[in-house]
Amino acid sequence: MNFKRQLKEGVITNNPILVQQLGMCATMAITTSLFNGVGMGLSVLIILTCCNVAVSAVRKFIPDEIRLAIFVVIIAGFVTIVDLLLQAFIPALSESLGVFIPLIVVNCIIIGRAEAFCQKNPVGASFVDGITQGLGYTVVLVIMCVIRELLGSGRFGGGLIDLAKGITLDGTGTGIQLFNSDYGASILTLPVGGFLTLGFLFAAMQAALKKSAKKKAAAAKTEEKEDEAA
Question: Tens digits of per-residue pLDDT, 207-227?
């Protein structure tokens, strides 16, 4: 288990949204406020980590023929728990996210990690994978929320931050108004804004990964030439 490598993969090189391109429907739909983004991101992180640990713990006892069905049952159980907890303790978030919390059951990120990683690795590594992949998912949601909310309406932290109350969990936070909303690109607050923002982030991530790959290739060639000269 290599925490630094898994963290780098989850947040950057194998990010579930920007690299694996999974879970994009909810990503574009709920990233209209920081309240939604943080709430959805943490919900997925918790569910993903719990499911990873559970799948890894029972992986040797699951017949291959029914493993996907078992994965879905495990995921559904944890999604139900989180959904009920949100309804009980943070009803505003539950209402704001609506159907997208129950739909985590079929989120390709969670099923994909169970299939590609957890059924082949021990509990410890699977736990770290859940944390890092969930963190990568949450980071992208927060970035999208900030871009869409700030550039679209000139506000930051809607639903979550209130100048008078501080951090709020009832969804009533007015956020911090940085400039008049009349000067914002209101298209970013609309559904199409989700596509535009995600497309921009895709392009930025691919450019960064290509640049990193070129640097590694150049470094490898330099090292090879030095070895030959020696």
Answer: 999 999 998 888 888 877 777
